Protein backbone atom coordinates (compact mmCIF):
# COMPACT_ATOMS: atom_id res chain seq x y z
CA UNK A 1 0.00 0.00 0.00
CA UNK A 2 1.39 3.39 -1.03
CA UNK A 3 -1.42 5.53 0.36
CA UNK A 4 -4.38 5.32 2.72
CA UNK A 5 -7.50 7.53 2.40
CA UNK A 6 -7.88 9.90 5.36
CA UNK A 7 -10.53 12.47 4.36
CA UNK A 8 -11.99 14.20 1.31
CA UNK A 9 -9.85 17.30 1.87
CA UNK A 10 -12.62 19.91 1.76
CA UNK A 11 -11.54 20.88 5.27
CA UNK A 12 -8.49 20.07 7.36
CA UNK A 13 -7.85 19.92 11.08
CA UNK A 14 -6.18 23.05 12.42
CA UNK A 15 -4.98 24.03 15.89
CA UNK A 16 -4.11 27.75 16.02
CA UNK A 17 -1.76 29.31 18.55
CA UNK A 18 -4.09 32.36 18.72
CA UNK A 19 -7.87 32.47 18.49
CA UNK A 20 -9.35 32.47 14.99
CA UNK A 21 -12.75 34.03 14.28
CA UNK A 22 -15.36 32.45 12.03
CA UNK A 23 -14.81 33.76 8.51
CA UNK A 24 -11.15 34.56 9.09
CA UNK A 25 -8.75 33.69 6.27
CA UNK A 26 -5.79 31.70 7.57
CA UNK A 27 -2.52 31.09 5.77
CA UNK A 28 -0.18 28.27 6.74
CA UNK A 29 2.65 28.02 4.26
CA UNK A 30 1.03 27.34 0.87
CA UNK A 31 -2.31 26.42 2.49
CA UNK A 32 -5.05 29.03 2.57
CA UNK A 33 -8.25 28.18 4.38
CA UNK A 34 -11.21 29.86 5.99
CA UNK A 35 -12.49 29.12 9.47
CA UNK A 36 -16.18 28.25 9.27
CA UNK A 37 -16.55 28.54 13.05
CA UNK A 38 -14.59 30.26 15.81
CA UNK A 39 -11.52 28.29 16.89
CA UNK A 40 -10.06 28.90 20.34
CA UNK A 41 -6.31 29.21 20.76
CA UNK A 42 -4.60 25.83 21.08
CA UNK A 43 -7.84 23.93 20.40
CA UNK A 44 -8.61 21.74 17.41
CA UNK A 45 -10.82 23.28 14.74
CA UNK A 46 -11.16 23.14 10.98
CA UNK A 47 -10.12 25.22 8.00
CA UNK A 48 -12.22 24.93 4.86
CA UNK A 49 -10.15 24.66 1.70
CA UNK A 50 -12.97 24.70 -0.87
CA UNK A 51 -16.26 26.53 -1.21
CA UNK A 52 -17.62 29.88 -2.35
CA UNK A 53 -17.10 32.85 -0.05
CA UNK A 54 -17.66 36.61 -0.18
CA UNK A 55 -14.24 37.97 0.76
CA UNK A 56 -13.30 41.55 1.64
CA UNK A 57 -11.38 42.97 -1.31
CA UNK A 58 -8.90 45.70 -2.11
CA UNK A 59 -9.96 48.71 -4.19
CA UNK A 60 -10.49 48.06 -7.87
CA UNK A 61 -12.79 45.97 -10.01
CA UNK A 62 -12.56 42.20 -10.28
CA UNK A 63 -13.78 40.43 -13.42
CA UNK A 64 -15.62 37.13 -13.51
CA UNK A 65 -13.07 34.33 -13.76
CA UNK A 66 -10.12 36.42 -12.52
CA UNK A 67 -7.54 34.80 -10.27
CA UNK A 68 -7.86 36.21 -6.76
CA UNK A 69 -4.97 36.39 -4.31
CA UNK A 70 -4.84 36.87 -0.54
CA UNK A 71 -2.84 39.85 0.70
CA UNK A 72 -2.01 38.78 4.26
CA UNK A 73 -0.55 42.20 5.10
CA UNK A 74 -3.62 44.19 4.03
CA UNK A 75 -5.95 41.28 4.96
CA UNK A 76 -7.97 41.44 1.77
CA UNK A 77 -8.43 39.80 -1.61
CA UNK A 78 -6.68 41.31 -4.60
CA UNK A 79 -5.99 40.53 -8.24
CA UNK A 80 -2.31 41.40 -7.71
CA UNK A 81 -0.19 38.27 -7.62
CA UNK A 82 3.29 39.60 -6.60
CA UNK A 83 4.03 37.97 -3.22
CA UNK A 84 0.37 37.20 -2.47
CA UNK A 85 -0.95 33.64 -2.38
CA UNK A 86 -3.61 32.42 -4.81
CA UNK A 87 -6.86 31.94 -2.91
CA UNK A 88 -9.19 31.09 -5.80
CA UNK A 89 -11.22 32.31 -8.78
CA UNK A 90 -13.82 35.10 -8.86
CA UNK A 91 -17.21 33.51 -9.60
CA UNK A 92 -18.92 36.89 -9.91
CA UNK A 93 -17.69 40.27 -11.08
CA UNK A 94 -17.13 42.93 -8.41
CA UNK A 95 -17.20 46.66 -9.12
CA UNK A 96 -14.45 48.94 -7.85
CA UNK A 97 -16.70 50.27 -5.07
CA UNK A 98 -17.86 46.82 -3.87
CA UNK A 99 -16.58 45.79 -0.45
CA UNK A 100 -16.35 42.07 -1.29
CA UNK A 101 -15.71 39.70 -4.15
CA UNK A 102 -17.32 36.25 -4.48
CA UNK A 103 -14.55 33.67 -4.74
CA UNK A 104 -14.46 29.92 -5.16
CA UNK A 105 -11.53 29.04 -2.93
CA UNK A 106 -9.29 26.09 -3.55
CA UNK A 107 -7.92 24.62 -6.72
Descriptors for this entry?
107 residues, five-stranded antiparallel sheet, four-stranded antiparallel sheet, 9 strands, 0% helix, mainly beta, single chain, 40% strand
Summarize the structure.
With 107 residues, the chain is mainly beta. The protein contains no helices and nine strands.
Secondary-structure topology with pairs:
Elements: E1 11-14, E2 25-28, E3 31-35, E4 45-48, E5 51-56, E6 67-71, E7 76-78, E8 85-90, E9 100-105
Antiparallel strand pairs: 1-4, 2-3, 3-4, 5-9, 6-7, 6-8, 8-9
What does this protein look like?
With 107 residues, this protein is an all-beta fold. The protein is globular, with a radius of gyration of 15 Å. Strand 6 (67-71) and strand 7 form a beta hairpin. The protein is built from no helices and nine strands.
Mean of residue pLDDT? Answer: 94
Instruction: List segments where confidence is low: pLDDT < 50 over at least 5 consecutive residues.
Output: none
Work out the helix count. Answer: 0
- Overall helicity: under 10%
Order of helices and strands: EEEEEEEEE
What characteristic shape results from the CA principal axes?
A: globular
Q: How many beta-strand segments?
A: 9
Query: Roughly what fraction of the amino acids lie in strands?
Result: 35-45%
Structural class: mainly beta
- Largest sheet entry: 5 strands, antiparallel
Rounded to an integer, what's the Rg over CA atoms?
Answer: 15 Å
Distance from N terminus to C terminus (CA atoms, Å) equals 27 Å
Strand order across the largest sheet: 5-9-8-6-7
